[in-house]
Amino acid sequence: MKKNLSRLAPLALFAVMALPLNASGYVIGPTSPGKWGNPLLGTGATVTWSLMGGNVSCGLLASGCTTTALDAFLPSGFMTEIRHAFDAWSAVANINFVQVPDDGAAFDSTTASGDIRIGALPLDGANSMLAFSFFPPLNGNSGAGDIFLDYSEPWKIGFGGSGYDVFQVVTHEIGHAIGLDHVTGVSALMNPWYSEAVRGLQADDIAGVRFLYGPRAPIPEPASMALFTLGLLGVGLQRLWRRRRD
Ligand SMILES: [Zn+2]
Known about the structure:
Helix content is about 25%, strand content about 15%. The chain contains four helices and nine strands. It has a five-stranded mixed sheet, covered by helices on one side. It has a two-stranded antiparallel sheet with strand order 1-9. Zinc ion binds near residues 11 and 192.
């Protein structure tokens, strides 16, 4: 139900950025456990995501609400930006994202779609609320983690000039969707205001996501690779020995 979902303060136009501080000030969302996967803080998770597409009912948010497909208004290349946004978080913390098909079920209903569904709505016209999202479980039903972009905004890819960079905004919203709230007093992507003063995750954002999911675990070397390396070494030794014998 809508009342169980925590609607977040949106990104808004023009930031007044605080001076960077050394101390981390990240803020965790209000839901409990407020993270995906094992509720134990610092443990990893695998989270699926999908694109809602158009004409998905979001009547819980507004009467008669239906979504607009992202490719109807975002610049071409937006999918690469969205994937980079997920990658930015998974690169620094023990959280993995997997894209899955979206079944078009209504917002917050029973669905086989992604844990995080990304959709778009007409929110409030250009240059005000850019997007909003919902915290992780336990929070509502399937609506937890979902993200909505305002299709009325002048979206762009890259910095400079007017408009709002898809990567910058979606990365911020994913931060909410995986359990981070707004932070002020520290230079962070999770500041509540859109800013091009920084690009992507900052130290405070990284500290926050690692608090929830732990640091990115090193990828173990597959046994087959280790054997291959030993095999190459063996070949090298054989050649060396043959030369010496020669
Ligand atoms: Zn926000």
